[in-house]
Amino acid sequence: MGFWGFLVNASYFVAAVLFIYGLKQMGSPRTARNGIKVAGAGMLVATLFTFFHPAIHGNAWHYILMIVAIAIGGSAAWVSGKRVQMTAMPQMVALYNGMGGGAAAAIALIEMYSHEAFSAGFGLIIMAVVGALIGGVSFAGSLIAWAKLEGKLTKSFRIPGQQFATLALAALIVIFGWAIVASDFSAPVLVTLFFFMSLAFGVLLTIPIGGADMPVVISMYNAFTGLAVAFEGYVIDNPAMIIAGMVVGAAGSLLTYLMAKGMNRSLTNVLFAGFGVDDGAQAE
Amino acid sequence: MITGFVALYIFMLAAFTGYEIIGRVPTILHTPLMSGSNFVHGIVLVGAMVALGNADGFWETLIGFVGTILAAGNAVGGYVVTERMLEMFKSSKD
């Protein structure tokens, strides 16, 4: 593992502890404000030590690109997060969550394109494909949720034959996913098509859902991104991503259920009330 | 490399941890917690950095670059928004 490998792994362990402790503190009104600071410290430690990750084999340019990318994404998010009205918070959560899902999908894409980079075990390939799918769905779905709450997509419109299109796309995704697993990633065209299908699926799934149900949907995509991060963490052998992603995946799933229950709705009702157009079960 | 059943145990234990954390949380904290957990999966940033650091060729580098931008947005934005939401709990505290 080497000296730097040890330090990086130690920093990830510290980050995992701080994340769990911070989230625990966020669960009580008295300690909630401290909780986010604890979790933030964990993120800072993990990010700084990652610059010394022994698995990074790139040259100086790669490090420059890393810093530039963090500066662009970080400052844009900082400014938008500080400026936004308190009432507009849910759509900002959706936006940032979608970005996380997109990042997980990007990691999956790189791993799947450079398939010779790792000796692919069967479980690893499946995790990479499923993580790419969930990340892509979360990315596109969250952006639709953001656009709806922001008022850029006002109607919960349905394209004709929406149900059929969604089901057909789901079937195609299964077929293509299986083809990628069977071919050991050796067909970049399949991988690219699969990625765009996952985006389309996220759009089709979210578009029929009305604005009032959006917080529940955002919470669901939050759990999705967590799962995608955990799966891709397994693929690239990153324990911090596995732990943090899985904790968020489970916590987010339970939170989604509780939020739906708080609105006297079941999750299937939220997801498919707009989906099954002509059953009278649409609660408004 | 974490493989096989060890990986499965880690997934299982982390999932229970997440479940237990949310357990008995007051309704008023649901949205801040959603935002807080949204921040925590911003850890995808470290994976995006490593992926960008190993990228070969134009397309991989571009995807890694975009991925790192998105991940940094998730981490920073998630933090800022959560902190602002939780500031509302200031007055009830003291």
TrEMBL record, chain B:
The chain crosses the membrane at residues 6-26, 38-55, 61-81. Its main location: membrane. GO terms for molecular function: NADP binding; proton-translocating NAD(P)+ transhydrogenase activity. It is found in: Cell inner membrane. Keywords: Cell inner membrane, Cell membrane, Membrane, NAD, NADP, Translocase, Transmembrane, Transmembrane helix. It is a multi-pass membrane protein. It catalyses: NAD(+) + NADPH + H(+)(in) = NADH + NADP(+) + H(+)(out). InterPro entries: NADP_transhyd_a_C. One of its GO terms (biological process) is NADPH regeneration. It holds the Pfam family PNTB_4TM. One of its GO terms (cellular component) is plasma membrane. Its EC number is 7.1.1.1. It is an enzyme of class 7 (translocase). Residues 8-90 form the NAD(P) transhydrogenase alpha subunit C-terminal domain. The transhydrogenation between NADH and NADP is coupled to respiration and ATP hydrolysis and functions as a proton pump across the membrane. This is proton-translocating NAD(P)(+) transhydrogenase. It comes from Salinisphaera hydrothermalis (strain C41B8). The lineage of its organism: Bacteria, Pseudomonadati, Pseudomonadota, Gammaproteobacteria, Salinisphaerales.
